[in-house]
Design a protein that fits this description.
Elements (H helix, E strand, L loop, with lengths): L15 H18 L30 H6 L4 H26 L17 E4 L13 E5 L2 E5 L3 E4 L16
Antiparallel strand pairs: 1-4, 2-3
């Protein structure tokens, strides 16, 4: 898969899924075989305007930043959740399932037992572009926003047994 992405234009929205899958594949294999101990990947950025209406995507048309992230209504929030769910499901399917295989460098454990996968974002609320925890009014309701983070994996025993999150 990674070789197939070499000829793709990474700035074209219709290539987003293939580019992401290629990066996840290379990341998983590099961690699995011990070629890399630390990998960073930035899927999007605050003002990324990828159109998620591409084939095989979550079926949400329109630019991610201007239309989806800035939506302050219930429909826009559901579209945002659909895009996030699609991204996390791909990460679970293409990265975490590979890492949940026996660790060739530490028999009796999985790569995920010995890895920490950390997800984060740079904004609390995409609509307001803020990065500080605060009370926000969203859809007429007072909501407390925060910088969401997710940690998966055992960290070589430091964090205990692995935990895999699968979006449904």
């Amino acid at each position: 898969l990674a070789e197939k992405t070499a000829s793709l234009d990474p700035y074209k929205g219709e290539n987003f899924a293939a580019m992401m899958d290629g990066h996840l594949e290379v990341t998983a294999e590099a961690l699995r075989c011990g070629t890399a101990q630390v990998v960073t990947m930035q899927l999007m950025w605050t003002t990324s305007d990828v159109d998620f209406g591409f084939s095989g995507g979550p079926g949400v048309s329109g630019g991610y930043h201007n239309i989806i992230s800035h939506a302050g209504n219930a429909g826009g929030r559901k579209q945002h959740a659909s895009c996030a769910r699609w991204v996390f499901q791909r990460i679970a399917d293409r990265l975490l399932t590979v890492l949940d295989q026996p660790d060739p460098l530490a028999p009796g454990t999985t790569v995920l037992d010995n890895t920490v996968v950390y997800f984060c974002t740079e904004v609390c609320d995409g609509n307001a572009h803020n990065s500080h925890a605060s009370e926000q009014w969203i859809l007429g309701n007072k909501t407390y926003t925060y910088l969401p983070t997710v940690t998966i994996g055992g960290g070589g025993g430091y964090f205990g047994k692995k935990g895999i999150i699968t979006a449904k």
